[in-house]
Design brief:
alpha/beta, five-stranded mixed beta sheet, D-Maltodextrin-Binding Protein, domain 2
Length: about 180
């Protein structure tokens, strides 16, 4: 069996039939920052799977997307083998969705039109809180190392030489 290894950070959402699908009722003791449709009674900071199986999603076709880029069609061919593997393992058809922005990808998850997704680090929080996205995997190098490298770039004369120099400053972060 071929192992799928992709460069960079990859966070894959749980399959649609395991994702929280419908609102949690009064039994929700902890919601945290999650949308009112979701609950986090086990305290792991992601939406719990509904205890009522009738509320689980179970689409005939799974829709897969990877983090948006300028030309989303570029990734469709890159993930052909992965989508075939996913189809074989789930017994479902798998279709590609080329998201053109992080917002459209999170909205597709929220509305139930997207079921499995590779999301970059920036919008992961929005996916979790607004759409019930459950990260289940992360890309790693072939030797098992993983991580995220953030670079701080500023003007030479800014006076910012280390991260602690940012205290009290307004900072923009992009991915």
């Amino acid at each position: 069996m071929r192992r799928f290894r992709f460069a960079g950070i990859f966070v894959a959402g749980a399959l649609a039939f395991a994702l929280p699908a419908a609102g949690q009722d009064a039994a929700c003791k902890n919601r945290g920052d999650l949308d009112k449709r979701f609950c986090d009674n086990n305290g792991d900071l992601v939406a719990d799977t509904p205890t009522d199986p009738s509320k689980w999603l179970n689409p005939d076709t799974l829709v897969f997307s990877y983090t948006p880029v300028e030309d989303p069609s570029v990734y469709e061919n890159v993930f052909t083998e992965f989508m075939a593997y996913l189809a074989k393992k789930t017994g479902k058809k798998v279709k590609w969705y080329g998201a053109d922005s992080y917002a459209s990808q999170v909205e597709a998850l929220r509305s139930g039109r997207l079921h499995v997704a590779g999301i970059s680090t920036g919008p992961t929080v929005f996916g979790v809180n607004l759409a019930g996205y459950v990260p289940i995997a992360m890309m790693a190098k072939s030797d098992g190392r993983f991580g995220y490298k953030l670079q701080l770039i500023t003007q030479k004369d800014s006076g910012i030489m280390k991260v602690s120099d940012l205290k009290g400053k307004r900072v923009a972060h992009v991915t």
